[in-house]
């Protein structure tokens, strides 16, 4: 009979607080991850939106090619018109 | 049932209740995390997809720009000479003269004339390009880009077969009046003297 009471005391005074403490720690850790993950998700979405204008690089490339072609033609003309130093 | 057994059952129920409460809360938190990670993954996938062609495009742009820089640097050095070219670049972009031109390693050691301190950039450029501008002769620290005395090479190109010699003399204008070697009598050949 005494051993049963000792067992009850162990359950209530030791095992239950330890279980509660450990589970509460796990829940705290999980809860602390949530805002970080939400921030990461928001940052990833914002980064993806920022890259929407990457498509314009194609037109930039075309403009660069045209500009260089014009500069080459202009330089060729200058080469003919202006005497060398 | 003995009291000790009842207390044990109550203790076990309390432990199980704590387990259920905290584990269920943890499950909900993990579900939130999963949803957040799904959003993050979709965003990262979007970033990867959108940035995939960037390397090729930027490399092509840089390649074209490199060709343009080589062309313009070569043309500038050819036409202006190394010293004036470095001076002109240094005048437009202060400090850039020390870096020199990419394809001309010797340009780093050239002592660049301080062009922009004497004349404004536009005036100086036009003056040094202009053959007849007086400023081109006495421009700072260097000869004119075009030789003012012998700068007619471009004009000569208009005459591939050589510049034409002096033209044949045209017949002189007829002399009229009383000193004319040919005198026409009044009223001859239908002439109307009344109109004179």
Low-confidence stretches of chain B: 130-137
User: Largest sheet of chain A, described in full?
Assistant: none
Uncertain ranges of chain A: none
What is the averaged pLDDT score of chain B?
77
Query: What general outline of chain B do the C-alpha atoms trace?
Result: rod-shaped
SS-based class of chain A: mainly alpha
Helix percent band of chain A: over 70%
Rg estimate of chain B, integer Å: 46 Å
Topology order of chain B in helix (H) and strand (E) letters: HHHHHHH
Distance between the termini of chain B: 161 Å
Task: Describe the secondary-structure layout.
The complex is a heterodimer of chains A (85) and B (196).
Chain A: H1 2-50, H2 56-81
Chain B: H1 3-51, H2 54-80, H3 82-92, H4 96-99, H5 121-129, H6 134-137, H7 153-156
Helix pairs in contact in B: 2-3
Structure description:
The complex is a heterodimer of chains A (85) and B (196). Chain A is an all-alpha fold. Chain A has 2 helices and no strands. Chain A has one domain (2-81). Chain A has helices spanning 2-50, 56-81. The longest helix of chain A has 49 residues, at 2-50. Chain A is rod-shaped. Chain B has helices spanning 3-51, 54-80, 82-92, 96-99, 121-129, 134-137, 153-156. Chain B contains 7 helices and no strands. Chain B starts with a helix and ends in a 40-residue tail after the last helix. With 196 residues, chain B is mostly helical. Chain B is 55% helix and 0% strand. Chain B has a domain at 68-149. Chains A and B meet through helix 1 and helix 2 of A and helix 1 and helix 2 of B.
